[in-house]
Amino acid sequence: MDDASHMRAAHMRAALGLARRGLGQCWPNPTVGCVIVRDGRVVGRAVTAPGGRPHAEPLALAMAGAEARGATAYVTLEPCCHHGRTGPCTDAFIAAGIARVVVAVRDCDPRVNGQGVARLRAAGVTVEEGLLAAEAEALNAGFFLRIRQNRPLVTLKLATTLDGRIATRAGESRWITGEPARRAAHALRGRHDAVLVGVGTVLADDPDLTCRIEGFRAIPLVRVVADSHLRTPLTCRLVATAKEIPTWILARHGADRDRAYALGHAGVAVVTVETAGDGAQLGVDLPRALRALAARGITRVLAEGGAQLAAALLRADAVDRIAWFHAPAVLGADGWPAAQAFGVAALAAMPRFRRTGAMPLGDDMLTEFARAA
Length: 373
Ligand code: AOF
Ligand code: ZN
Prior knowledge:
Elements: H1 3-20, E1 33-38, E2 41-47, H2 56-64, E3 72-77, H3 89-96, E4 100-105, H4 115-122, E5 126-129, H5 133-139, H6 141-149, E6 153-160, E7 165-167, H7 179-190, E8 194-198, H8 199-205, E9 222-226, H9 237-240, E10 247-252, H10 257-265, E11 269-273, H11 286-295, E12 300-305, H12 307-315, E13 321-326, E14 336-337, E15 353-361, E16 364-371
Parallel strand pairs: 3-4, 4-5, 6-12, 6-13, 8-9, 8-12, 9-10, 10-11
Antiparallel strand pairs: 1-2, 1-3, 7-14, 13-16, 15-16
Helix pairs in contact: 3-4
């Protein structure tokens, strides 16, 4: 690589770093980073605002002011060309006199999908595509899945012993991993749109499911419970705080109406999901439940347990990534497993993943995986 391409990659990497800050906060929109460079100097930089608007480009342009004329803009996603609540980003670039736009990946939203690039070129702007495309694709994997497959990205979080246990035989589980790992788990919540648990976890732990890192999030994390028969107690913490923090329950079609009404009155959104055939262990058909979440705009879900939910997601081939926190401890076979049985007989049918990262956290480890291609 020559100096110029090093600099271009560095600017795009900076734009990706900005975009990363928006993870968990921009749904239903993607999080986009934009860096504007004039004569080798960064004159504007921005990320999509919380809630998904304004887009990154007008924010970066506002920072650059008159210096945008003749400058190069690095964007992690193709600029939009549709008329949303504000004008198209392509037109904002053109009006500001941006000379060159470097795009990491195209926006698969059918309103854009190549038309943003075409519009810029038609206006005489030089457009270059594909710089750090794989990184940009992975960063917005949740948004791309929502648009292309009508489902969000699912990250399964597991916190276990070395032998994959999550509680003693008496059900004691606090705490298997140490403080640094638990903080990292909260940061993980911070980068997802929603956290998903099975009703068994609500009944056993009465969790808050919030991101308890001060200042990490500008919009609240949506809390979702898979609860086919509406067994979530009206007195649990999730319901008690549902008016302040978005709380959704995924229930079977035909679940008790009075309970649905009472939960709704408490501020919970009860989302009913049709059940079909092998609607599986939780009674909620998970692929359909995930589609229901995507329809509401969710792009990134962190599934936190329990063992039934983990098994049902794995069986449905719905796990895209795994964040595995493991402590240097062993519980043995009478400890509770991280995933219930889900009927794998042949190794060929076993869900497989590839390792994408590993990080020590005190005595614990976080190992990250993505679906094997
Ligand atoms: C950009 N820059 O920062 C983002 C973009 O509802 P609207 O009008 O906000 O449009 C949403 C669409 O805009 C979304 O589906 C995606 O195609 C694009 N998001 N585009 O130029 C941004 N967040
Ligand atoms: Zn835009």
